[in-house]
Amino acid sequence: MTFQEEFQAVVLAAGKGSRMSEITGGKPKCILPVGPKPLVWYCLHNLQLAGFSEIILVVLENQRADIQSVLEKTDLEVKIDYFCINDNEDMGTADSLRLLHDKLRSDILVMSCDFVSEVNLKGVFNIFRAHNASVASLLLHPQNNEGIVVPGPKSKHKPERDLIGIDEQTSRLVFLASASDFESELALPCSLLKKHTKLKIFSNLLDSHVYLLKNWVVKYLKSEENITSIKGELLPHIIKKQLSRAPKLREAKESILNSRDPGDIYSFAKEDELELAIRDASSFNDHVGDLRPSYHGDAIRCFAYIAPKNTFGIRVNTLPAYWSINAKVIDNWEKISNSNELIFKSPKAVILSTQVDNRCIIWEGAKLNEKTSFKNSIIGSNVEVNSFSRVFNSVIMNNVTIKEKVALENCIVCDGATIENGCQLKGCLIGSHHIVSEGSDHSNEVLTESDRLMEF
């Protein structure tokens, strides 16, 4: 006898990293180095800890080989089912989920590949199960990034903010929108305020892009091909539908002929009759203050789980976030990895330098020659640093060559770059395969070929 799993995990890793194109040009975002591991390792490891034995990883077809090669070198035990999408098509997150429709037999956990956190997923699972939710979203309190200076030209980064409405009595998620959609005022429907009298609007929570979805949501998405984004379109649409009512029988029959009928979602969001009967017979109610039945009789129910305030979590989807996570990963490693051993120096690295401090992470294949100095830096695989050079507080990605008498401080150096003899670089971002000419002196600049930042 075979048993259907309760949840299927889907990790979305087909994004091109458009908000951090300075460092993702020509490289899959999901395998950017974060501390001792590729970025996507962190969410896969978290799902493995949650008990998943198999994960669907959505990737671009032309990046699958690179991603698979990197992940096969890690310590992950979970089985990864690679689902490739065409790299020539501009597809949103909902489009990717729609393509997966035939593979999704159970309720679904959707997670972005750029989520790095210690959060225990049990909390969001429990709220989803307890209320037989249609959708459950994981939210976190944001990290304090004060004092972090990002390489490149000095500019003030303005983080994106969401307006998230949660009923504090029931944890119902009843409003979701980007703060940028509103200039100074936020108007809410009277019906929403009457129904959810304990409504609180948050503007300081981080949407982790971790969502639990009922299987019917994917079936509904399959029928609504105009929806392209999970966060921007699908979730706000379903959340708003909580205020509507299922159509009467006559209208339901009409909706069969008209799939765009506003009540059509209720042909997917059907509750089990036995479960309804048990709830009607029970004295349970999720709220107080009126005589309405539990959940106000809603077939569509969205919930939010807010992780404890001290929970570490970052979405690595911008350059400041990437710089921040690499600055914090060592201090938070034990929590993030569930006490996995942190290997600071790969046994496959050649380290001839005697000046490597205890806050450096050296990847396999790196060669640090004699008379070099390293402090608080990440040195990627197959990097060679020649004599009389020093690297302080920097992230050096893979296959980089640093010649003699080079000084790097507060820099990000991308794949395949070459820093020629005698260069002095401070607060700079060096793009992939860029060659910094001999004797160069730069401060707070982006050094890259402009065409490498363009996506075709």
Secondary structure blueprint with pairings:
Layout lengths: L6 E6 L8 H4 L8 E2 L2 E2 H11 L4 E7 L3 H8 L7 E7 L7 H7 L7 E6 L2 E3 L4 H9 L4 E6 L21 E6 L5 E6 L11 H6 L3 E4 L3 E8 L1 H9 L6 H12 L7 H9 L15 H9 L20 E5 L6 E3 L3 H10 L4 H5 L12 E2 L3 E2 L4 E2 L4 E2 L4 E3 L2 E2 L4 E2 L4 E3 L2 E2 L4 E2 L4 E3 L2 E2 L4 E2 L4 E3 L2 E2 L4 E2 L4 E3 L2 E2 L9
Parallel strand pairs: 1-4, 1-6, 4-5, 8-13, 15-18, 16-19, 17-20, 18-21, 19-22, 20-23, 21-24, 22-25, 23-26, 24-27, 25-28, 26-29, 27-30, 28-31, 29-32
Antiparallel strand pairs: 2-3, 6-12, 7-14, 8-12, 9-10, 9-11
Helix pairs in contact: 4-7
CATH topology of the largest domain: Spore Coat Polysaccharide Biosynthesis Protein SpsA, Chain A
Approximate strand percentage: 15-25%
> Helix- and strand-based class?
alpha/beta
CATH superfamily placement of the largest domain = Spore Coat Polysaccharide Biosynthesis Protein SpsA, Chain A
Distance between the termini: 49 Å
**Uncertain segments of ≥5 residues (pLDDT<50)?**
255-260, 451-456
Per the principal axes of the C-alpha atoms, what is the gross shape? elongated
Fraction of residues in H or I helices? 10-25%
User: How many domains?
Assistant: 2
| pLDDT averaged residue by residue | 90
The CATH first-level class of the largest domain comes to Alpha Beta
Number of strands: 32
Largest sheet, strands/sense/barrel: 7 strands, mixed
**CATH architecture heading of the largest domain:** Alpha-Beta Complex
Q: Quaternary status of these chains?
A: single chain
For the largest sheet, list the strands in their spatial order: 5-4-1-6-12-8-13
Helical stretch tally: 12
Radius of gyration, in Å, reads: 25 Å
